[in-house]
Specification:
homodimer, alpha/beta, Helicase, Ruva Protein, domain 3, Dna Topoisomerase Vi A Subunit, Chain: A, domain 2, 4-stranded parallel β-sheet, two-stranded antiparallel ribbon, 7 helices, 40% helix, elongated
Chain lengths: 189, 189
């Protein structure tokens, strides 16, 4: 495409680098931003950079947080004897949206997937074992996607947790096999 | 959605304000940016603000430009006797991509549409008449979308151009009626 402006070209290339956004959509978004007041575009840009700069990950559960301990880990109203192990941040959001789970979380940061080159050492498993070793933890709920990779990860972690005094459970398989957890709605979960 | 971080929430809201991007997609984009190096996110943000800050519109044809006169109007290799009237910047890009048109452009900034409240005074018509009054212009090609609104605009502008010594033509109607010009490819145009 002949964009007749270097600035527009840079912005289109930046927007097209986002997942699922091609050149034509990027151009549409760039022209939309071009029609916005300069102040609003500045706010748009700063909200993105501020997010990248200031978001931290909870040192305990690896969930995103505005400080080094997340609100869920810090809360006095959560059940500190239960840990729900999930693949990513979006799974925490999906479960929190149901308002039915009152325990803590542990974000693995992925699941074991030899095809994508993700092994156990790439995940937050060591810190999970540390937490499970503490006396107060009674139950670890494995809430991973019901796929082959998810089941492999559950099996691997369950074996490691055998030597600790915790009950390992999985979420009820009401979610269709092969479906990603983050797309499940409140009723399914 | 419970996002557990004000920074993430701001970024998601900013991304969701773009056309065609909902909350779930915005969250996906925000988490993608979160996984990028801080430097890359900074470049992303600055390319958008730089675009908004520095892009100018050509004072002659209202096309986007890096200075107050666009490269097409300034070029010595263009046919200065022909003006192609288009609705928006994307139409200029579409026609330029064919490399077959050698004349100048005039960007109206929309078409007459009573439903959307766009009247003749909201468009760059006065400056088109000024240009048509100049001696060197021999032909004005109306390359508007083949819709009712496009035809109305062509009729309105053609009437105004009658008093000037210019030939008014329209592009051949090979484009399907109701289709937007910016989606037409090189072959159709």
């Amino acid at each position: 495409m002949n964009l007749s402006s270097k600035y527009l070209e840079d912005a289109v290339n930046a927007l097209a680098s986002l997942p699922g956004i091609g050149k034509k959509t990027a151009l549409r978004l760039a022209l939309h931003l071009l029609n916005q007041p300069e102040e609003k575009v500045g706010e748009f840009a700063s909200s993105v950079t501020q997010m990248r700069k200031n978001i931290q990950f909870c040192k305990t559960c690896h969930n995103i947080s505005d400080s080094d301990k997340c609100l869920i880990c810090e809360s006095n109203r959560r059940d500190k004897s239960t840990i729900c192990v999930v693949e990513g941040i979006r799974d925490v959001m999906a479960i929190e949206d149901t308002s039915h789970y009152r325990g803590l979380y542990h974000v693995l940061g992925g699941i074991i997937s030899p095809i994508e080159g993700i092994g156990p050492n790439d995940l937050n498993i060591a810190s999970l074992l540390e937490r499970a070793a503490a006396d107060n933890i009674k139950e670890v709920i494995m809430a991973l996607s019901p796929t082959i990779e998810g089941d492999t990860t559950i099996f691997y972690i369950s074996k490691l947790l055998q030597k600790y005094n915790v009950k390992v459970t999985t979420i009820a398989r009401g979610v269709a096999f092969g479906g990603g957890l983050q797309y499940a709605d409140e009723v399914i979960l």
